[in-house]
Amino acid sequence: MQFPHTPQQAQLPLFEAFMMQPLAPILKEVVESPWSAEPDVFSELSLRGAAGNCLNLLAPILRELSEDQDARWLTLIAPPASLTQAWLRDAGLNRERILLLQPRGAQSAQQLTCEALRLGRSHTVVSWLNPLSSASRQQLISAARTGDAQSLNIRLG
Questions:
Q1: Does residue 62 or residue 26 have the better pLDDT?
Q2: Which of 25, 32, 111, 126 is 20 to 30 A (C-alpha) from 64?
Q3: Membrane spanning segments where (predicted)?
Q4: What separation, in Å, do the N-terminal and C-terminal C-alpha atoms of the chain show?
């Protein structure tokens, strides 16, 4: 069966405005403001959905971090209750390189995370702080720089 030929309009008009602009100013901007040579010490991951699905998405990230060549710990601060020793084993994480820490007494998870980062005994400190204010984020960044560590905050939705 043959369909009548209908002339297709080129989609080029959608991009004409972009293509008409010279690239020189864009390239000049990139060259004049290169990326910072200082490594970023704070990252945040937001996961939404069923708890089991979120943990399945998180497993390869934590597995990779647990196998890091750095001799220091991967530290998990106040992880959700569903992140158990059995889950760590089933997800294939190197449990010999992981510390699970819970805040004690009046200490908050934020304070414990900052302390773990500042001490520098962990290559990465993973926290579950939600919400995280800009002041709290700056505290984590400062502590991570002091301890030459990475801070990864996970927000579960």
A1: 62
A2: 111
A3: none
A4: 51
**Backbone phi and psi for residue 66, each to the nearest 5 degrees, phi listed first:** -75, -20
C-alpha 62 chain-centroid distance: 11
Beta bridge pairs of residue 14: none
The pTM for the full model equals 0.75
Phi-psi region of 32 (alpha: psi -120 to 50; beta: other; left: phi over 0): alpha
Q: Is the peptide bond before 25 cis (omega within 30 degrees of 0)?
A: no
Q: Which residues contact 65 (CB under 8 A, 6 or more apart)?
A: 74, 123, 124, 126, 152
- Residue 2 three-state SS: coil
Answer yes or no: CATH 3.30.420.10 is held by domain 40-156.
no
What does the pLDDT look like over 1-30, one tens digit per residue? Answer: 555 555 554 444 444 444 454 544 444 444
The two structure tokens encoding residue 157: 């939705």
Distance (Å, rounded) from C-alpha 76 to C-alpha 57?
16
**Distance of alpha carbon 125 from its chain centroid, rounded?**
11
Token code pair at residue 117: 């980062």
| Structure tokens, 110 | 């934020």
60 vs 18, residue with greater confidence: 60
